[in-house]
Amino acid sequence: MKDYIINTAAFTVEALYRFFAFHWEVAKRLVRPPYYPKLIWEQMDRVGVDSLPIVVLTSFFTGFVLAFQIGYALMRFGAKLYVGGIVSVSLVRELGPVLISLVFAGRVGAGITAELGSMQVSEQIDAMRALATDPIRKLVLTRFFAAVIMLPILVVVGDLIGILGGMLVSVMNLGLTANFYRTSVVNSLVFNDLISGFVKPIVFGGMVAIVACYFGLNARGGTKGVGDAVTRTVVVSSVLVFLLDAFITKVLFLMGM
Question: Which of 33, 109, 154, 245 has the fewest CB atoms nearer than 10 Å to its CB?
Fold first, then answer.
């Protein structure tokens, strides 16, 4: 039992060291060109534009259900007029960044790990190094920049679609007018809400890209190893989204935002 605990602790420490050492290697290359802008543009199309359908669906039904639940609860107190404000603030500050980041981790993060993992087990990464090409600069940084740029854009689109879903319920089921709903949304949102909703997806996007690339480049054991790496990417990214969300929310709260 004692040996098992020692071995587990040693393995955990080594894994954390390699994980953060990879972050350091990426950070060192952030300030030095080249940046491969053409590859970044291609990755932005893959991780951003191709993710729009699932983001739109997720956001619309989130706003739709949220308006139903909040409207039903507020109707008991005669306060259904506040549905638009509560839906918009909830989506912009919290639900939009977190839910869309989870979808992003499941779709984009898993895809990146599968792609890089397949290149790793087929020794294409070793071939790149033999040709004096830095895989971190060419494969990791391009995906990192694409994710950091595109996830905030996806969240903004998702927030608007979610608010639109809430308006549909408010007009069709709660007896509010579209003009009143739009006015309550505009009056409820303040600058700090927009800052909170924009900072989170930037951090989440970078985290998902780094985690996905790390597990992809460290995949071992053929197709089974690639599958295990994809699973680890989705699990670790999802957990880190919640941990970072709690941390950022606390920091913004202390800053009065």
Answer: 33
